[in-house]
Amino acid sequence: MGAVKSNAELLDEFLQDARIRGWSQWAIKSSEYTLKIFFKQIGKNCIDVDMDDLRKYLIYLQSRPGRMGRTKPSYATIKKNIDNLASFYEYLEFEDRVVKSPVPKFRQRYVQPLSSGKNGDVPRQIITVRQMSELVSTTVDSQEKAVICLLAKTGIRAGELIAIDLEDIDWANLSIKLKPNGKRSNLTVFFDNECGKVLKRWISSRNALVKGKMQALFVIPVNCHRINHSFVTRIIERNAARIGLHDEKSGDLSKRFTPHCCRHWFTTHMRKGGMPREYIKELRGDTRGETIDIYDHIDMEELKAAYLECVPKLGI
Predict the structure, then answer these.
(1) Staple partner for 180: which of 22, 134, 164, 170, CB 3.0–4.6 Å?
(2) What pTM was estimated for this model as a whole?
(3) 23 with 180: CB under 8 angstroms?
(4) CATH fold of 129-310, please?
């Protein structure tokens, strides 16, 4: 395994590896933040981490206050931190710094949702196409409308949306090239003409607002910095609450509407529209379980045609 390196040295090497792999700046900063806190909590070399250390870290995460005034962190927040940890230990395993990552076994036992639906997914609110149409159509702010529409029409994660730059959009092909982030296999997603019109309307306003070389597609208006997770969450929850789709005080996920609900909406309605399951998985960027499988035989033009045929029309 070579000479034992310090946590700081291993972190630097991991972050450099992430840059080489093309991770977005947001994903890199998120991982760096998680790992620095993790190192502080365990108080030892990360090579020697055991299950007790991971449990100690999880207890620490659970004790922290949540965002948006919540008394405790959400399941998604805890999962994101553990996912960052998993990526780090996957790197250590790849580099033969550890024999085997301890995180998958830990995650399977301790980071599964307590209330689960089919296939272990947290039961979330699935709104109708008509409700999504109302949500997008009645959102006045052009950026907020574009954020909601893009999440719904592509099924991408909030972190993937945050990392999109102007140059990532291929208008001729109605597609977006996402940044690698350690979670996604396929990096190409498509959008339809409805979504394209909404995006162009926002970009016109954005270009009048943003000066200099900033390339981020979505920005915080007050400082023109790239948006973050809190900003995306506020956009979705505030507009959903406005039309009665989100109850911020409820602990029942079926009464809340969050950015991840857009991903569930996309999956559900693409399936109802008749898209083959393997195509949906490809557009979602789900992890490929085998070296050679059906994904390797998906033609991108066929995938785009199926997407345009099946994606729900919102009449916007």
Answers:
(1) 22
(2) 0.68
(3) yes
(4) hpI Integrase; Chain A (1.10.443)
